[in-house]
Amino acid sequence: MPRTMRVEYPGAIYMSQIPIPAAPPTERAALEALVDRILKAKQADPAADVSAQERFAVNAKWQGRHY
What is the pLDDT of residues 33-63, one digit of tens each? Predict the structure, then answer.
C-alpha cells in the first residue's frame, strides 16, 4: 500500500499563528457585493475584463479595508 507524503512548508506553522481580523458586517457585505458583481460579469461574458475590480477587492482585503 503506497504511503502519501504530506508536504509542509517551513513557514506554514508560523502563518497559522497570524490572526486575521474579521470585517465588520457592513464592510463585509460591501466586499461580498463587489465579488458578486465580478462573478456575474464573468458569467455573462467569460472574456470580460474585471481585472480592475479584482485588484481593488484584493488590495482592499490586504490593506484592511473591506469595501
Answer: 988 999 999 999 999 999 999 888 888 766 6
What is the C-alpha to C-alpha distance for residues 67 and 51, in angstroms, rounded to an integer?
16
Provide the whole-model pTM: 0.57
Our CA angle for 23, 14, 28, nearest 5°, is 10
Phi first, then psi: what are they for 16, rounded to 5°? -70, -15
CA-based torsion, 53, 56, 62, 64: positive or negative: negative
Chain CA centroid to CA 53, Å: 13
Spatial separation of the C-alpha atoms in residues 51 and 1, rounded to whole Å: 46
- Annotated domain spans of the chain: 23-62
